[in-house]
Design a protein that fits this description.
alpha/beta; Rossmann fold; Coagulation Factor XIII, Chain A, domain 1; six-stranded mixed β-sheet; 10 helices; about 25% helix; binds adenosine-5'-triphosphate; transport; ABC_transporter-like_CS; ABC_transporter-like_ATP-bd; ATP-binding
Length: about 425
């Protein structure tokens, strides 16, 4: 085993064991160890030297430190397609700027071995008063390429950007899409070793995105090129990356397996959506609850990201003190595709315990295709006049329901549950 492979961290080992990572024996091209970054946000301004002195004697700093990144550790090997994922404001762009040498870390260090080409902020290194051609040369020079090197890659850049007819026009006359195309083409066609890209999939029109798509597919196969990609697009992470990290509030919370990272990100987003709804609560009881049923909650008892070999276990926890029998009705919504996937029916689960109760359930996932699901429940009582009918007493809303997701490599994103769920029968004439 090489020295580099000997240095691999726990995440690398895990990933290589489940067969996703092929590059652990390749050289480390980027090493991020114990990196921290904070920004100073001004709180009050001293208006002069005297004020500054008074503040100093009182211990008033005049700024507060916002820790944007804390103890970030990971390694990227040559040939990796490495994803950096996280919600808005989690610190991804700051991390890319540190990797690209735009910022200096306040703690830890970053080692880059190879020529790094960043595409992280549009407009950096471009001058609107210069022509497209001049901008290619300017940008290439800023990236550290010689004139001869830029001459050699110029045609390739222009043809990828499909801007042949516009190269002698000033950049300020380009549409924003054209500017993105040119900047992106310079970044990817420049012969660097490590390409650092921020949200590139979100730029350009559909045709250009398709082109980027096939470019990514080809670069993924090139063992000498390394890509570091920041994206919110989990299908891109699953499709291109062999490794990824998930950053939350400035810390790496998942490191290594790109599927784990993508799944956890989905879960974090689902949780955040739910929290947003929680914050909207008003009145004495949460929506759906009342003095008869002051508490009704669905709790996940299993992991919330599962494969079709798993079962999802959950419990309905509630408070109900009236002496009559009652019913629990449970429905499962398909969050992305819409619609109800399953419904127990209003009077199938009859219960008679009272007080604070918990009832456990299990859903086998064999028949599920990939998707995000929301379980909702209602507590119902028999209608006094019609024994066939139930009346809803309380229901879970978005703040007390439960979510889970099915992610299985064997499954597709079809709307239907399971490939065998639908049978089309030919009818007689
Ligand atoms: N130059 C700066 N000065 C002060 N605070 C900053 C600076 N740059 C970023 N921040 C703060 O650092 C935090 C992380 O920002 P960053 O842009 O790295 O997040 P991000 O994960 O890239 O977000 P997004 O997905 O929205 O691009 C944010 O709270 C942001 O306000």
């Amino acid at each position: 085993m090489s020295e580099t492979a000997g240095k691999m961290d726990e995440a690398d080992k895990t990933v290589s064991q489940n067969g996703q990572l092929q590059n652990v024996d390749k050289p480390v091209v980027l090493s991020v160890s114990h990196v921290g970054k904070y920004f100073r946000l001004p709180t009050e301004q001293a208006t002069g030297l005297k004020m500054l002195f008074i503040n100093w004697t009182k211990g008033i700093k005049g700024y507060k430190e916002q820790h944007v990144l804390r103890d970030i550790n990971f390694e990227v090997h040559q040939g990796d397609f490495f994803g950096i994922v996280g919600r808005n404001g989690s610190g991804k762009s700051t991390l890319l700027k540190l990797i690209s040498g735009i910022y200096v870390p306040d703690a830890g260090n970053i080692e880059v071995n190879g020529k790094l080409v960043p595409f992280i902020e549009l407009g950096v290194g471009f001058n609107p008063e210069l022509t497209g051609r001049e901008n290619v040369y300017l940008n290439g020079a800023l990236l550290g390429f010689t004139r001869d090197e830029i001459d050699a890659m110029y045609d390739d850049i222009v043809s990828f950007a499909e801007l042949e007819e516009f190269m002698d026009q000033k950049l300020k006359n380009y549409s924003s899409g054209m500017q993105v195309r040119l900047a992106f083409s310079v970044a990817i066609k420049a012969q660097g070793d490590i390409l650092v890209l921020d949200e590139v999939l979100a730029v350009g029109d559909e045709a250009f995105q398709r082109k980027c798509d096939s470019y990514f597919a080809s670069i993924k196969k090139d063992p000498t090129k390394t890509v570091i990609l920041v994206t919110h697009d989990m299908s891109a992470v699953k499709k291109y990356c062999n490794k990824a990290v998930l950053i939350k509030d400035g810390e790496v919370i998942v490191n290594g397996d790109k599927d784990d990272v993508a799944n956890r990100y989905t879960l974090e987003n689902m949780r955040a959506d739910k929290r947003d709804t929680d914050n909207d609560k008003s009145g004495e009881y949460p929506t759906g609850l009342n003095e008869r049923v002051p508490f009704l909650h669905i709790n996940a008892l299993s992991e919330q990201i599962l494969s079709r070999d798993d079962s999802f276990r959950f419990e309905v926890e509630y408070q109900y003190d009236e002496p009559n029998d009652y019913y629990l009705a449970i429905a499962m919504h398909d969050i992305k595709r819409g619609g109800i996937t399953y419904d127990t029916g209003a009077n199938k689960i009859k219960l008679s315990r009272h007080g604070h109760c918990k009832v456990k359930f299990e859903v086998p996932l064999k028949l599920f295709n990939n998707g995000d699901f929301k379980l909702v429940a209602s507590l119902r009582t028999q209608n006094a006049e019609d024994s066939e009918t139930t009346d809803m007493v309380a229901f879970t809303n978005d703040d007390n329901c439960c979510i889970f997701a099915v992610r299985d490599k064997r499954n597709r994103a079809y709307a239907l549950l399971n490939d065998c769920a639908l049978r089309i029968t030919m009818l007689a004439d």
